[in-house]
């Protein structure tokens, strides 16, 4: 009987070969699964994006329809058929709202508001603490 072989037992080489083949199969299957999941995710992303864009377009059309109705109502009921004046008033109101939204948004997006102040402060504290640790460790030797 040869050393390292038993009846019915497989050799170390055969076990390692099976392990390598099994590992390769597992990796191939994982890659296949990842491809399937990414494809499904991208498909859902495309469908979701299309639905949101369609909703946005419908919202825009609805908003324009509402504005047209407001202009028609104001021109007919309050301005004696002066629809041009109603349109001008609605446009002025929208321009004022637009200016307010843009100026508020620009303030929110300013570099001062976007800077991570607390993180910078704690990093400075950590740096000072580390300097103290290094200098106290160097002098205690």
Q: Percent helix among the residues?
A: over 70%
The CA-CA distance between the termini, in Å, is: 65 Å
Structural class: mainly alpha
Query: Could you spell the SSE succession in H and E letters?
Result: HHHH
How big a fraction of the residues is strand? under 5%
> What does the largest sheet look like?
none
Radius of gyration: 35 Å
Write the layout of secondary structure elements.
Elements: H1 12-78, H2 83-108, H3 111-114, H4 117-139
Keywords summarizing the entry:
single chain, 141 residues, mainly alpha, 4 helices, flat
Report on the architecture of this protein:
By secondary structure, the chain is mainly α. 85% of the residues lie in helices and 0% in strands.
Gist?
The chain contains four helices and no strands. The chain is mostly helical and 141 residues long.
């Amino acid at each position: 009987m040869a050393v390292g072989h038993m009846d019915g037992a497989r050799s170390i080489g055969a076990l390692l070969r099976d392990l390598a083949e099994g590992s390769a199969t597992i990796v191939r299957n994982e890659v296949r699964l990842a491809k399937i999941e990414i494809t499904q995710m991208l498909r859902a992303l495309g469908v979701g994006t299309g639905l949101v864009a369609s909703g946005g377009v419908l919202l825009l059309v609805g908003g324009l329809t509402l504005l047209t109705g407001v202009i028609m109502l104001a021109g007919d009921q309050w301005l004696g058929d002066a629809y041009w004046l109603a349109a001008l008033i609605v446009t002025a109101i929208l321009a004022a709202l637009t200016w307010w939204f843009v100026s508020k948004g620009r303030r929110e997006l300013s570099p001062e508001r976007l800077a991570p102040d607390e993180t910078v402060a704690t990093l400075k504290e950590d740096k000072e603490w580390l300097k103290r640790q290094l200098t106290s460790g160097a002098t205690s030797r």
